[in-house]
Design brief:
Layout (H helix, E strand, L loop, with lengths): L17 E7 L2 E6 L2 E6 L3 H13 L1 E6 L11 H11 L2 E4 L4 H20 L10 H22 L5 E4 L6 H7 L6 E4 L7 H4 L5 H8 L4 E4 L2 H13 L4 E6 L2 E5 L5 E6 L6 H9 L1 H14 L3 E8 L6 H14 L7 E8 L6 H21 L7 E5 L4 H10 L2 E4 L8 H9 L6 E5 L4 H5 L4 E3 L4 H13 L2 H17 L2 H14 L10 H10 L8
Parallel strand pairs: 1-4, 1-6, 4-5, 6-7, 7-8, 8-11, 12-13, 12-15, 13-14, 15-16, 16-17
Antiparallel strand pairs: 2-3, 9-10, 10-11
Bound molecules: GDP-alpha-D-glucose.
GDP-alpha-D-glucose binds next to strand 12, strand 13, helix 13 and helix 14.
InterPro entries: Glyco_trans_20
Protein name: Trehalose-6-phosphate synthase
Family: Belongs to the glycosyltransferase 20 family.
């Protein structure tokens, strides 16, 4: 449970205890030989929120990773983990059927594909939405147990849209904020959701709704306008002020998430990582390395990337036996059949490309299907001459930022999808690609690996500067300040007359598709 030693900015002390609500707790309970083991949770959200809660104190509400059918033997271990952490851990439990409907069903088979632009992959089941609602109710009840109806509550991500609304119904008096880690879809995609008005109402129950980019804010505002849920008082770039149906003002804003720049670059510069970089270079040979690091997910564009790499070898034959592509694929949602078939497809395409181009001493693609430890991760980031971050759609993509943070020699190039939120911040330093354009992607990869050193350095330096000055601590600070204060006078407060004008527009209107 220990943080990384770095602490959020001093201005945060004034904010007081905080309640964080996310799908998962920062620890996972695992059965081990008849008893329960507490394992640290992984991922960007945990890394971001843990040091803040350690400093502010408060409570973290989330799922401990076990279903009711597993019994309650884990509860004591979890409580002890909370005591060690210095903030309470409030578990939300659910049975297997609820977990399936809420998590595998509505969250991962409706919101995830739809919000990433894959409406055809959605499976809209009314019963899953019902389970989603009942589990969100459980999260709200657990949150009330923690905060007692007062204080700021920060709810995270798409699994928990309705927690704010349920908290208000339960009588919560404090401010409510939500941050969406994934992208918010354009109106044409959002319109396909059978519960499109319900979810907009759920978001407008918060005082602040945070998104990754100005584009997500724009999409949200447009959907609220189109479906007549609430009204828009003001919208400018990445900031908007809306009014909910009950007349409350709701702020929406772009808060691009960052990562712990200092921790990653310090680790990348450490002797341990340097040694690992040398060993890895010996293992792969004297080739220039392309790197991909992704959870196994169709949104990450893995197959498109492989095919573009193949085309690069075809169109730029002088690069054969000069480069290798190393892809780390992190297992994800392995009990979902769609993810298992993506893995088979990935294996098949890698096999075909390697079969086509390998020579006696060279194999163009290597991949590892596993998680690696932080030292290994930093070594891979540091060794790679080019990182390929080419999702078909991504809220932000922290891999892009972590790669730059680990490029302590400022010598690498980043090929980045236009459809990753990170492109809005890093666009000028990265080599931007449309991952659906195979020829352009292939040529961009070749350009990146052959870019002259001076240009590569200038670009990398520019990206590192941006990432260092908007790290995860500044992100949390900015968000929490906004969540605590709300809009100030002169920042677009509407007059009662304006609200009633907006009020007249509220009501069901047919979307202009
Ligand atoms: C969602 C949004 C948004 C990966 N492999 C290993 C490992 N990782 C870590 C990376 C990175 C994280 O996993 C992946 O984060 P991403 O941002 O790339 O993607 P999602 O998981 O889809 O996250 C995304 C994010 O939320 C934050 O708001 O950026 O758009 O989809 O931190 O380092 N870590 C370790 N071993 C691995 O093998 N230790």
């Amino acid at each position: 449970m220990a943080g990384n030693g770095k602490r959020p900015g001093a201005s945060m002390t004034a904010l007081g205890p905080l309640t964080v609500v996310s799908n998962r707790l920062p620890v996972v309970m695992r059965p081990r030989g008849g008893s329960w083991k507490v394992e640290p949770g992984a991922g960007g959200l945990v890394a971001a929120m843990q040091p803040i809660l350690e400093r502010q104190g408060g409570c973290w509400v989330g799922w401990p990773g076990v279903v009711e059918e597993d019994g309650r033997g884990w509860a004591e271990g979890l409580q002890r983990a909370g005591e060690r952490a210095g903030y309470a851990l409030e578990p939300v439990t659910m049975n297997r059927a609820q977990y399936k409907g809420y998590y595998e069903g509505f969250s991962n088979s409706v919101i995830w594909p739809l919000f990433h632009g894959f409406a055809d992959r959605c499976s809209f089941e009314a019963s899953d939405f019902e389970q989603y609602r009942s589990v969100n109710q459980r999260f709200a009840e657990a949150t009330m147990r923690c905060v007692g109806g007062e204080g700021l509550v920060w709810v995270h991500d798409y699994q928990l849209f309705e927690v704010g609304q349920r908290l208000r119904e339960l009588g919560h008096k404090g401010r409510l904020a939500h941050f969406l880690h994934i992208s918010f879809p354009g109106m044409e995609n959002y319109a396909k959701l059978p519960w499109r008005r319900e979810l907009l109402r759920a978001l407008l129950a918060y005082d602040l709704v945070g998104f990754q980019t100005a584009r997500d804010v724009r999409n949200f505002v447009r959907c609220a306008e189109t479906f007549g849920v609430g009204g828009v008082l003001r919208h400018e770039g990445g900031q908007a002020l809306l009014v909910a149906e009950d007349g409350r003002r709701v702020e929406a804003g772009a808060f691009p998430i960052g990562m712990d720049f200092e921790a990653f670059s310090e680790r990348a510069a450490s002797a341990e990582v340097e040694e690992r970089v040398r060993a890895l270079q010996d293992e792969i040979g004297a080739y220039r390395m392309f790197l991909g690091i992704d959870r196994l997910d169709y949104t990450k564009g893995l197959i498109h990337r492989l095919r573009a790499f193949e085309l690069m070898l075809e169109r730029h034959p002088h690069l054969r036996e000069q480069v290798v592509f190393f892809q780390l694929v992190v297992p994800s949602r392995e009990n979902v059949s769609e993810y298992r078939s993506l893995k088979r497809e990935f294996d098949r395409v890698v096999g075909r490309i390697n079969g086509r181009f390998s020579t006696s001493g060279w194999q163009p693609i290597r991949y590892l299907y596993n998680r690696v430890n932080p030292v290994e991760l930093a070594a891979l980031y540091r060794l790679a001459v080019v990182a390929l971050v080419t999702p078909l759609r991504d809220g932000m993509n922290l891999v892009a930022k972590e790669y730059c943070a680990c490029q302590v020699d400022e010598n690498g190039a980043l090929v980045l999808s236009e459809f990753a939120g990170a492109a809005a911040q890093l666009g000028e330093g990265a080599v931007l690609v449309n991952p659906y354009d195979r020829v352009a992607s292939a040529d961009a990869m070749a350009r990146a690996v052959q870019m002259d050193e001076a240009r590569r350095r200038t670009r990398m330096r520019a990206m590192r500067r941006i990432i260092a000055t908007s790290d995860v601590y500044r992100w949390a600070e900015r968000f929490l300040e906004r969540a605590t204060e709300g809009p100030q006078p002169g920042e677009g407060f509407a007059t009662p007359a304006q609200i009633s004008v907006v009020g007249q527009q509220v009501g069901p209107i047919s979307p202009q598709l």
